[in-house]
Amino acid sequence: MRSFFAVCFIKSVITIWFILSLVFVFTRMSGDPTRWILPDDAPDNVRVELRQSLGLDRPLSEQYANSFLAIFNGDMGKSYYYLRPVGELFAENAGATIKLGMAAFTVAIIFGVPLGVLAAVKRNSLIDRLTMGIAISGYTIPDFVFSILLVFLFSLKLRLLPSGGSATLAHFIMPVIALSVGPMASIARLTRSSMLDVLRQEYLDCARAKGVREISVIFKHALRNALIPVVTIIGLQLGSIIGGSVVVETVFAWPGVGSLLVAAAKNRDFPVIQYGVMLISIAVTFTNMLVDLSYAFLDPRIRDNF
Amino acid sequence: MNIAKTDIPPLILFLIISFITLIAFVMVAPLLFSIDLGATHLLNRLLPPSFMEKGRPEFFLGTDHLGRDFAVRLLYATRNSVVIAFSGMAIATTIGTLMGVLGGLYRGWVDTVVMFLVDARLSIPFIIIGIVCASIFGSDKITMIAIIGFAGWASFARLVRSQIIQLKEANFIECSRSLGASNMRILFEHIFPNISSPLIVHATMRLSSFILLESSMSFLGLGIQPPDISLGIMVSAGRDYLISSWWLTLVPSFVIVCIVLQVSLIGDWLRDKLDPKLQNNS
Looking at the whole model, is its pTM more than 0.95? Predict the structure, then answer.
């Protein structure tokens, strides 16, 4: 088990190193940033000063090393656009995104798993079809279209909910729904198919024959085994929540990391992009690692091999 | 299993025919309705569709905020979105197949490198890669196609690799090898014909996510740039007029959802048809 963990960890570290190096090389290849920060007729001394203050006058090797040290000391230099330390910008915005993401995650799990179980138990019934219909629309309707539909319906037509901002609890409702629909759909679909596999097995009949009540056969005996693949897909939803938050935050003017990244991409604000990619790759890679480990932990066949 | 010999349910048949018709129509649309995408007619701005009150018969779906014919622009936008997604898919399939073949056929360190690249690619969400690439390389049509190809190859590589590893153990390939067939001969005579169906299924299923990536990026303003047009740009431009002219946003949104739904349902059906393992399951 320990060597399995070590292999996973080393792989994750190499992956993060590779991604960060790639982003570093490409951003440095795209030329001198003062060209698009300053107007064309800016005097040379202003350009030199700006380059100095952004740390671009230092040798490339030092910049490269600094971009990795940023993982530990948070110092990724200054944003080209806001001319403020990048770490500060992220510290201001991360809270809103984490709150939104956690809420969406919770909603996706709370609704996704029971819907999947219900659909599997009542297979081919109206509930099953309805659930799978919701699941299909969950991954065919793009986040931004779904968000706009919500705004159109609940803000403009019914005037029930605010269309943007993050001040009160009411502001949370629509972004959380928009962000959780996709992951919820994946979780419900997988729970359903995994439950269907388990429900066919004979040990459930054995439990029923012993006189165990149906509800506890389903939730205690079947769901426990069906949840193993579901746990892994729940971990993998982190990526889609991060990707979705970029779009959803833009639609709802949510002051989070997603809208910060979109603005940075438009302004070619590379330090912000580098820092964002760093955080995302670390979060996703280590979650994937935990998923691998949890799989090994939950499934004795894999666990015993290490 | 041969697709032509299987029964196609009426719904799927309808979806396939309507999808092909839609693609054919938007591809010839620029020949039928030739317009200058940049030209504006401010006197006609924000006219409602012709079937609504105050609509004019010459503008079927009304006009946008700069007085341009909305229906014709919708055709151009759909064409751009579909062309970008299909071309991106072609590139992703090519790169993915090549990498998968390298990994599956040669194993050893080549395989390790391929799988490492796949894992690295999959550890960053699709749209984040798109955003980062667009900020570095800009975002015209060609770049968008390249971005989709670059961001989408990994799952193809994984599929092809695992298929090849399975097939290599198959008796008929062992047979062929013992008769002296080279790697290349085995690849083209035996492996490609056998992995083509899963590859087609996978490509169809991925196509919808490529359409989503393209439209999300152009919605965020990071895809192709005006005066060129795509469905995401139309949704984003219409947002400011959501109260008074809802069709400017909801009609292109509806088109995106329709295309994605068609492609996904066709893909799901193909997968169930071509994969005997799933036939008893769903």
Answer: no
